[in-house]
Amino acid sequence: MPELLKTIEKKGKRTKPRRTLLYGTHGIGKSTFASCMPKPLILDLEDGLDDIDCQATPRLDSLDEVLEWVAELYTGKHGFETVVIDTLDFLERLIWKGVCASGGKKVIDEFGFGKGYKLALQVWVELLEGLDALRNERKMSVLLLAHSETAKYENPETEPYDRYGPRLHKGASQLVQQWCDEVLFASHKVFTIKDDQGFGKERARGVGGDQRIIRTVERAAHLAKNRLDLPMEITLAWSEYDKHLNPQNYKEKKEKAVG
Predict the structure, then answer these.
(1) Could you check whether the bond before residue 150 is cis, i.e. omega within 30 degrees of 0?
(2) Counting runs of H as helices and runs of E as strands, what totals does the chain give?
(3) Cβ pair 124, 175 in contact under 8 A
(4) Is residue 7 part of a domain?
(5) For the domain that residue 160 is a member of, what is the CATH number?
(6) How many structural domains are present in the chain?
(7) What is the C-alpha separation between 256 and 259, in angstroms, rounded?
């Protein structure tokens, strides 16, 4: 036991690449956000980057191609500091396709009793281990992009209600969220106003929607989390997020500008 005691490390805040999940509606600006991160390489699974100035792989059409690129980033010589997967819901389709091919099935549900989804989870674990290696040994940040969906949430303390979450199978979504340091929900900021319809009746109407924001804390309407003590909402821009990741950099810039 005394030998084990010597291995105890002092814990505290340390600068380490982040593992981030950013999910939101189609076209909200997830890929643009990714392109502004430090020296990113986007693993393109959607073929939707033609209008964005970024470095990306050719469209990846199989799970093996995705794993090959992760391995190449681990072993190869390069200057990338961020790896981006665009998007997880397209990746999940490739994982299911690979699992079905290995098991001789046409669709994931043919395995029966949820077995196909359990096999898929094993692939997710393998992939996340590879991304952890990039983070820990190659010092790369990891950004996972996903589309959003609304699903019924069975809250034991209330009646069931709908809320936003990543468009992934439940087990995969939970695994990825637990793995990530931050889970961020990108959306438009919308306000409601009430119109008088006469005869004592009112109708709620949504207005606004031009401002794009990131929600960083879980609420009834959406899933989110962060370990950076972020404000509940920040502007959907890498520079705004980076201010909280590297506050010292912005403090020094401000001091130089004042000086």
Answers:
(1) no
(2) 8, 8
(3) yes
(4) no
(5) 3.40.50
(6) 1
(7) 5
